[in-house]
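Example 3.2
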Amino acid sequence: MRKLIESCFVSLDGVVEGAEAWGAPYYTNDENRHHWNSKLQEADALLFGRVTFELFHGIGLKAQGDPYFDRIGSLPKFVASTTMREGSWNATLISNQAAEKIAELKSHPGKNILKYGNGGLDKTLMENNLIDEFNVSIFPVVVGKGRRLFEGVDTSHFKIKLGGVKQFSNGVVTLTYVHD
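Structure, written as tokens:
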């Protein structure tokens, strides 16, 4: 069975919203890009919510020739959305029964399924115990306001343990949590 790995950027004060703005000085250096590119190589499919997909799609189309975004562009993508009407950029829409369809994806042979971002889809994934691992990258920046990590998600039944720590020279720390 494939693992579903969620990878998200979080400010020191817990904000996940707007990471493309406040995180750019940190995730664009060679050390961080090498790490995240190696994680991307361990996946053969991507899962997105609509907002994160649209963000990556916009960046990816402009970043042709960048190995990281070329890899993202080449992978099959699954987008959970009730508002998108058609897929693009090698994406398949999941418009209903998301939990069942994602569980089915996980049951197929292959590498990891990597999910970027943190948002509304997480509620469904967590309620159905579909996330096998969290890679939470904490950035040394205080944002002050914005949507918080797992905001509105009941995490009381979710039992995880620390599986690893990766510290970067620029102050970013990636914590890996796995099911306990």
